[in-house]
Amino acid sequence: MKSRGLQIRRLKRDELPIQTVKLARFLIGKTLVHDLPRGRLAGRIVETEAYVTGDAASHTFRGLTARNRPLFLERGHAYVYFCYGNHFMLNVSGQREGIGEGVLLRAIEPIEGIARMERNRVTVRLLDLARGPGRLAEAFEVDRRLDGVDLVGGGVLWLGAGVRPAGRIGVSVRIGINKEAHRLLRFYERGSEFVSGSRSLRK
């Protein structure tokens, strides 16, 4: 699905729920945008996971560190980390300042800047451009330089309103973690081919 010149409204902080699980659900169908000198990358968020206080799988489980500081910022800030030594992941802080919680963006349906995403990912397979958090970050040119940026503060990487209504939202266990994976903290647009995981986790 290609699109040019989309009019996307930037979200404001007071639109973001002050509760991480609610934010993870709220972000389904919203838009991630990265404005670059040579064009815009944009896509619909179709899959998220929440990481909350007391969650052994969360990077904030043992408290505030230099690395996880962005998760303790007011909701709507980016937390970018390098995973498994080969790719970045993009998260959104999800609580009031001082409370370390966040939402992992797991998958996106590309809608603008697709040719550039193809070059970034070295593939022309649309479904594989941003399905999974590592692919998402690579497609959208997200790295540690964007760690801590305010996603609702007028910068180049930002969250926008949906370009069309979200479909039915599914809930499941989380994917790709060993600790507390059983928790129903993963949200996704049901039936979307751009959602990651097995087919049974997209129904």
Describe the structure.
With about 200 residues, the chain is an alpha+beta fold. It has a single domain, classed as Methylpurine-DNA glycosylase (MPG) (3-methyladenine DNA Glycosylase, Chain A, Roll). Helices cover about 10% and strands about 25% of the residues. It contains 3 helices and 8 strands. Strands 1, 2, 3, 4, 5, 6, 7 and 8 form an 8-stranded antiparallel beta sheet that branches. The longest helix has 8 residues, at about 115-120. About 45% of the residues are buried.
Features:
alpha+beta, 3-methyladenine DNA Glycosylase, Chain A, 3 helices
Beta percentage is: 25-35%
H/I helix tally: 3
Mean pLDDT across the residues is 92
Which parts are unreliable, with pLDDT below 50 for 5 consecutive residues or more? none
CATH level-two architecture: Roll
Q: Specify the helix fraction band.
A: 10-25%
Number of strands: 8
Biggest sheet features: 8 strands, antiparallel
Number of domain units: 1
The separation of the N and C termini measures 21 Å
> According to CATH, what is the topology?
3-methyladenine DNA Glycosylase, Chain A
Order of helices and strands: HEEEEEHHEEE
CATH superfamily: Methylpurine-DNA glycosylase (MPG)
The helix-and-strand class reads alpha+beta
> What's the CATH first level?
Alpha Beta
